[in-house]
Amino acid sequence: MSGLRQRLTDVESTARRFAPLPGQLLRTRWWLRRVASVGTWTRAVGRSPLVEAEGSITIGRRGVVNSRYAPVALRSAAGASLAIGDRAVVNFGTSLSAGEHVSIGDDVTIGPYCIVDDRALAATDGATPTAPITIGDGCWLASRVTVLPGTTIGAGSVIGAGSIVEGDIPPGVLFGGSPARVLKQLEPSEEPGD
């Protein structure tokens, strides 16, 4: 009898865990209504993210935008595009801004309070130069990472907490420190998502 009771308890707890999902999906559609394309089963949790979509913003399937403790900011300037791939996780307090083009691959995890912005600080003449940013599939950015304009992060790379990333980062490496540099080549079994 205890085996049956345990299975019923397991079924009840599973049902409770997934019960809010339809509501989350409806809230997500409402909160992300200014986003050009939101993939199926993508959800926003916590509070409403800040969306400023003068250009194009797309989010792939089965992604998570976590604004539980601080809102996520998704911005695209007029004529710019911000593309987030499938199964990407964007954590609270993160700001993703495109002045030209920001591309985030599939299975990318972005930690809390990260900044990904393809616009440099304004020059003395008032112009704001931009350079595209590409983050490859399967990358992981730890907390408080800043990705500067013109950066390309290779697939499967891990960026350490608090790093300021600039230039071309090879695939499958641990990158971080102050100044930021390649710390270690990752083995395939160490790469996130495996």
Give the secondary structure arrangement, pairings included:
Layout: H1 2-18, H2 21-31, E1 37-38, E2 43-46, E3 50-53, E4 56-59, E5 64-67, E6 73-76, E7 81-84, E8 89-90, E9 95-98, E10 101-104, E11 109-110, E12 115-117, E13 133-135, E14 140-141, E15 146-147, E16 152-153, E17 158-159, E18 164-165, E19 168-169, E20 173-176, E21 181-185
Provide an overview of this structure:
By secondary structure, this protein is α/β, with parallel strands linked by helices. The protein has a single domain (2-190), classed as 3 Solenoid (UDP N-Acetylglucosamine Acyltransferase, domain 1), CATH 2.160.10. Helix content is 14%, strand content 34%. The protein contains two helices and 21 strands. The protein has helices spanning 2-18, 21-31; strands at 37-38, 43-46, 50-53, 56-59, 64-67, 73-76, 81-84, 89-90, 95-98, 101-104, 109-110, 115-117, 133-135, 140-141, 146-147, 152-153, 158-159, 164-165, 168-169, 173-176, 181-185. Strands 2-5-8-11-14-17-20-21 form an eight-stranded mixed beta sheet. A hairpin with a 4-residue loop joins β20 (173-176) and β21. The longest helix has 17 residues, at 2-18.
Main attributes of the structure:
single chain; 194 residues; alpha/beta; UDP N-Acetylglucosamine Acyltransferase, domain 1; eight-stranded mixed β-sheet; seven-stranded parallel β-sheet; 2 helices; 21 strands; 34% strand
Give the structure's gist in a few sentences.
With 194 residues, the chain is α/β, with parallel strands linked by helices. It has two helices and 21 strands.
